């Protein structure tokens, strides 16, 4: 969620599609704050590149202003938007470790956040698009349901708040507040046992100063006059509806996580899960007093809160005193590419999300498809056209809460997704949609009310309370029998469309990847981005140049469509609408051509390049009247009804009329460890990074480990097959041992991706190798403590023997005793090259001037100086005080400047 106060000159908001880990501590004697660096020109920030040896480089970009408080995470990318390294954030600095044959240049790197380059204020303009917004999407065949889940119920509602002792959360330095906002039926309301719905908000500024929209602080707890942003009150509008219908609800506050989640490698997902579980533990002690049935708990999380509650669902065992029967994830992050098996899940995705622009929450649906065979929990994705990221939370919406707030979508207001576009939803319209779909999911999961299922399962359905908003959905699970593209699938009839299998990845240089073709600015949430390390899925690509051309899937096992409907999750090239028919064939060779609901038209999802969405729409077909053997459907073809087009098929499935029961089961959980070892003297030692399994492994399982940052060459990928009964193992990670004093700590990151019959919780591990060779001694010496004006103040930074690493040095002028040296007392050429035009009478320390250098490998001496100017004016002694940051060590030195005689 974009911090509304003091917005930077750079519009912000994109994705960190890959694992995020802490980049290692500084090397050698210490790590730099800023040096050596590329100068900050035009407010673009500074780049720093440092060799780590063996073809590895530490790159860091420091922003000239505080980074925005968004739910997305920054990433470092190279040419072609390829992720070049594992990214970490510390304050205004974004770091990554890059493997490259030569040292990268900061000019060749970018820092991307929510689709925008933070380090480029003068980036080339994008292609001009006419400022005529597309008309709102119209979905043919849409029906309005009689039962509207947002209709208030008959019960009186009461509101209360509680505060518990602060919670100590692993990985966070300071405790997290435990505050809950409760909205529930009145105690006397005859509701019967009440399901509990818990809400958790996402990442937003924690503190604001009333009356000053530009004031902000990163301190925690909020110091006066700052007060906490009550983000947890932003879902009261849904709580009120649910409470009137007989549900107990609580919305929990997570500001203490938001201000500290840069300290942890998973973006705070584990911490948010810990907070949610702690509140559920509290409710286990008071459930009887509130008539709450803890066997029916639904979790609702927004943005990073969505990933947090999903992690809680993974972590909560069946033996807990409460049972999670469903979850609703609103514009969530999914940095870990995780999902919650056996937990029904609805994911709301806003088409105009200006924060999580890649709609990565789609992974909660897609990852679940192939994870295990008997998971019948519904996994639904819902695309809300014209919705942004913030407006689901009333406190984050301008004019709706006490704190400053903003529209996270940036860009011209009359462009598509702009505030004045006909297709954009107002904040109240967007919250009306959220109320309907969150309440509908709660009714389905906690009360078993399947009347709302058409809102979530790919049917073209709506309810009156959503107003003019257009919403699409698709689903897997729920008892569906699914067939995914495989090497045996593609087959093109004579004279048919062009078809091929492709990997779900945007890697234009890889022939096997689906790629975007001419859609480089589009968001493709079903695919991984260039440079991402996650396993990919296969899709069927089909392109045609004339109506009647066809292509499709030869099914690896027949589908039984008896009493079921056929669904084809289909991604359309958004540059033009397409129309399709579906042809099915049985094992005897008989075929039937069927028209999907809505005429088989798949509308473009976003017409302008930066709002295009390559998102799967559901082609839904009723095959009951087809003259084929519905028990053995062996082939499904798409037949073009439009002149030309291109689509990608994710899968086809046979969907039952009602949801199947969900097994009371949880998969075993894999956790990666972290280890620290001494480097050693020679060879290539192998460190075994442990992983543990919690829960019994009863079926063969598979996990993919990806190791990055260990040296030259690509990341290493290791696929491990686990057999029933295993409880753990290890990942081999090698490093180079030597007798040189080089980087003090080398970190190798390991990511775990569960692909079959298990899940991950702590999915990020690392091996830290500590250099055990003697370090050179450092000395900083001032050449002369007193100089005559016209001479240079000089400092020598020296090592007693060569090092095999860079020792970066930053020299900053700091406050000194009066009278302090002024700008006019320093050589004007030096001033011009370091700070430009500054008033001559201004104290030099007030300018914040700094200069940078580095002791390169094998060098032992670095000299730095500030030249003074002989001005011929009689004046007393003046002082010049500097701070030298040499890695992690800091030295302060003072020089006195006297008049020339």
TrEMBL record:
Residues 1-25 form the signal peptide. This is Alpha/beta hydrolase. InterPro entries: AB_hydrolase_fold, TAT_signal. Residues 402-425, 478-498 are annotated as: Disordered. Keywords: Signal. It comes from the Bacteria.
């Amino acid at each position: 969620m974009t911090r509304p106060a003091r917005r930077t000159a750079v519009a912000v908001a994109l994705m960190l599609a890959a694992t995020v880990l802490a980049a290692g501590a500084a090397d050698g004697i210490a790590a730099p704050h800023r040096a050596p660096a590329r100068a900050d020109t035009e407010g673009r920030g500074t780049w720093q590149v440092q060799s780590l040896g063996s073809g590895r480089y530490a790159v860091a970009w420091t922003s000239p202003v505080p980074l925005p408080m968004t739910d997305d995470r920054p990433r470092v990318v190279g040419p072609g938007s390829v992720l070049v390294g594992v990214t970490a954030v510390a304050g205004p600095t974004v770091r990554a470790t890059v493997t490259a044959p030569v040292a990268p240049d900061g000019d060749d790197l970018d820092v991307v956040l929510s689709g925008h380059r933070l380090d480029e204020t003068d980036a080339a303009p994008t292609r001009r698009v006419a400022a005529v917004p597309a008309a709102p999407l119209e979905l043919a065949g849409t029906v309005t349901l009689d039962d509207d889940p947002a209709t208030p119920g008959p019960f009186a509602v009461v509101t209360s708040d509680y505060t518990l002792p602060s919670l100590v959360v692993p990985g966070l330095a300071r405790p997290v507040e435990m505050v809950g906002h409760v909205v529930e039926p009145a105690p006397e309301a005859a509701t019967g046992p009440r399901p509990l719905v818990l809400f958790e908000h996402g990442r937003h500024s924690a503190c604001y100063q009333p009356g000053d929209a530009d004031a902000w602080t990163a301190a925690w707890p909020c110091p006066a006059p700052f007060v906490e942003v009550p983000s947890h009150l932003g879902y009261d509008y849904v709580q009120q509806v649910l409470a009137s219908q007989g549900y107990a609800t609580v919305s929990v506050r997570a500001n203490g996580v938001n201000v500290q989640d840069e300290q942890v490698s998973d973006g705070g997902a584990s911490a948010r899960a810990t907070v949610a579980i702690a509140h559920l533990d509290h409710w286990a002690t008071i459930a009887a007093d509130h008539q709450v049935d803890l066997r029916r708990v639904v979790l609702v999380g927004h943005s990073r809160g969505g990933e947090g509650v999903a992690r809680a669902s993974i972590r909560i065992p069946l033996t807990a005193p409460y049972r999670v029967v469903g979850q609703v994830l609103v514009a969530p992050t999914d940095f870990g590419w995780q999902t919650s098996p056996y937990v029904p899940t609805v994911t709301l995705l806003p088409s105009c999300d200006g924060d999580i622009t890649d709609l990565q929450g789609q992974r909660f649906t897609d990852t679940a498809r192939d994870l295990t065979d008997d998971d019948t929990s519904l996994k639904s994705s819902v695309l809300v056209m014209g919705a942004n990221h913030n407006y689901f939370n009333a406190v984050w919406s301008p004019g709706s809460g006490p704190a400053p707030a903003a529209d996270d979508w940036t860009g011209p207001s009359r462009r598509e997704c702009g505030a004045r576009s006909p297709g954009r939803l107002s904040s109240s319209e967007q919250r009306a949609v959220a109320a309907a779909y969150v309440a509908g999911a709660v009714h389905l999961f906690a009360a078993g009310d399947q009347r709302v299922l058409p809102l979530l399962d790919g049917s073209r359905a709506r309810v009156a309370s959503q107003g003019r908003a257009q919403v699409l959905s698709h689903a897997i699970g729920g008892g569906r029998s699914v067939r995914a593209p495989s090497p045996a699938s593609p087959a093109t009839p004579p004279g048919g469309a062009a078809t091929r299998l492709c990997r779900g990845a945007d890697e234009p240089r890889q022939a096997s990847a689906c790629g975007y073709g001419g859609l480089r600015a589009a968001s493709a949430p079903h695919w991984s981005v260039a440079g991402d390390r996650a396993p990919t899925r296969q899709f069927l690509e089909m392109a045609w140049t004339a109506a009647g051309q066809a292509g499709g899937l030869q099914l690896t096992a027949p589908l039984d469509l008896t009493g079921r409907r056929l669904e084809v999750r289909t991604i359309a090239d958004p540059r033009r609408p397409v129309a399709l028919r579906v042809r099915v064939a049985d094992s005897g060779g008989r075929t039937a051509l069927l028209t999907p609901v809505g005429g088989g038209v798949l509308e473009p999802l976003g017409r302008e390049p930066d709002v295009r969405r390559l998102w799967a729409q559901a082609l839904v077909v009723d095959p009951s009247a087809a003259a084929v053997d519905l028990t053995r459907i062996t082939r499904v073809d798409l037949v073009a009804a439009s002149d030309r087009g291109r689509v990608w098929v994710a899968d086809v499935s046979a969907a039952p009329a009602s949801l199947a029961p969900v097994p009371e089961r949880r998969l075993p959980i894999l956790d990666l460890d972290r280890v620290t070892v001494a480097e050693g003297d020679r060879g290539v030692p192998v460190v075994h990074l442990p992983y543990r399994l919690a829960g019994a492994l009863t079926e063969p399982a598979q996990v993919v480990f990806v190791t990055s940052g260990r040296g030259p060459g690509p990341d290493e990928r290791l696929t491990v097959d686990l057999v029933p009964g295993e409880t753990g193992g290890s990942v081999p990670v090698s490093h180079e041992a030597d007798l040189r004093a080089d980087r003090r700590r080398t970190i190798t990151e390991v990511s775990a991706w569960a692909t079959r019959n298990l899940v991950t919780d702590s999915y990020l591990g690392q091996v830290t190798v500590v250099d055990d060779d003697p370090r050179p001694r450092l000395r900083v010496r001032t050449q002369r403590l007193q100089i005559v004006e016209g001479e240079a103040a000089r400092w020598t930074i020296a090592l007693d023997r060569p090092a095999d690493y860079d020792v970066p040095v930053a020299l900053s002028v700091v406050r000194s005793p009066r009278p302090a040296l002024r700008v006019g007392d320093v050589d004007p050429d030096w001033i011009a090259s370091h700070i430009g035009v500054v008033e001559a009478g201004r104290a030099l320390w007030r300018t914040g001037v700094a200069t940078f250098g580095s002791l390169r490998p094998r060098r032992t001496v670095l000299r730095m100086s500030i030249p003074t100017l002989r001005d011929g004016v009689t004046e007393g002694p003046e002082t010049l005080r500097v701070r030298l940051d040499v890695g992690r060590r800091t030295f302060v030195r003072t020089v006195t400047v006297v008049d020339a005689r």
